[in-house]
Amino acid sequence: MADDQPTPTEASSQHALTVSLRVARYNPEAGDKKPHVETYNLDGCHPMDRVLDLLIRVKGEQSGSLAYRRSCAHGICGSDAMVINGKNRLACKTLVRDLGSAISVEPLKGLAVKKDLIVDMEPFFESYKSVMPYQVTSQPPTGKERLQSPADQAKIDDQSKCIMCAACTTSCPSFWANDKFVGPAAVVQASRFLFDTRDEGNAERLTVLNDYTGVWRCRTIFNCVEACPQGIDITKHIGNVKKAILYGTTDFLEGEEDHSGHGH
Ligand code: F3S
Ligand code: FES
Q1: Any residues with Cβ below 6 Å from ligand 1, and which?
Q2: Quick check: is 3 in a domain?
Q3: Residues in the ligand 2 pocket, defined by CB under 6 Å
């Protein structure tokens, strides 16, 4: 290494910064009547640190009672969705580099807070269950996979990327206004099975989605698309579910996926 080149330790200390992390704290078991904000200053942070790393440090170094959910730490399990600098994001996929040195974290909106950053996910999963998120078929088990064509699989690939983090549903003003609305995540999951050519459960599923708590409560506000950490085209799927109800069929997706003129 040339004399004027920094050593790895020097290079990393050149990037070190102090982050001021504002965390919404709430512990009803300790008598809290409402949330309050606590600020934690963290020295020696790196731009490539994730918000999850900051929370782990706060819990280890400053406040062992801090409560948050995490599991995979790699954007797969969907446990650590929260409001970070005002937007719904996964703490494990959000870098200090993209936020600056003043960072705030709050629990997801629209679900009851149990403690600090942990919300009650039960209503979210109840909505998910209501749309029958599994394959319904009259065909007997074969002991093998039920194969389908690549073209048919392409109709459900995007919806299959959902990790059930609830970032979309809890960013939706229609959900905030009425928590009985099944919400965008449940509609995406319904779409995953509605447009699966092996599935036979559409009549029942569409009845649930056509109900007053179903897909028509979507007012095309688009917050959900921006919130999704998986880049799912949520409003396209919501639109297709509305069409399926109106047309009484899911066949209209045939040939609809490629409007570029390059696919033929
Ligand atoms: Fe809500 Fe998304 Fe519709 S934010 S209103 S579900 S477009
Ligand atoms: Fe699993 Fe972030 S901890 S998605």
Answers
A1: 172, 174, 184, 218-224, 235, 238
A2: no
A3: 70-73, 75-80, 90, 92
- Atom of ligand 2 at shortest distance to CA of 72? 1
Distance CA 247, CA 40 (A): 54
Q: How far apart are CA 42 and CA 21, in angstroms?
A: 7
Distance between CA atoms of residues 162 and 185, nearest Å: 8
- Higher confidence at residue 254 or residue 101? 101
Atom of ligand 2 minimally distant from the CA of 73: 3
Pocket test for ligand 1, best of 88, 127, 235 (most atoms within 8 A of CB): 235
- What pLDDT shows up at residue 261? 38
Which residue range is the domain that position 53 belongs to?
8-119
Please state, for a pLDDT cut of 90, what percent of the chain lies above it: 88
CATH code assigned at 102: 3.10.20.30
Q: What pLDDT digit, counting tens, does each position of 93-144 carry?
A: 999 999 999 999 999 999 999 999 999 999 999 999 999 999 999 999 889 9
SS3 34: coil
- Residue 11 CA, ligand 2 centroid: distance in Å: 29
Distance 33 CA to ligand 2 centre (A): 29
With a cut of 60, say whether residue 145 has pLDDT above it.
Answer: yes
CA diameter of the chain: 73
- Identify whether residues 113 and 127 lie together within a single domain: no
Q: Which atom of ligand 2 is nearest to the CA of 93?
A: 2
Q: What is the mean pLDDT of residues 182-191?
A: 98
Where do the DSSP E strands lie in the chain?
A: 17-25, 36-45, 81-84, 87-90, 102-106, 113-115, 118-119
| Statement: residue 65 has pLDDT above 90 | yes
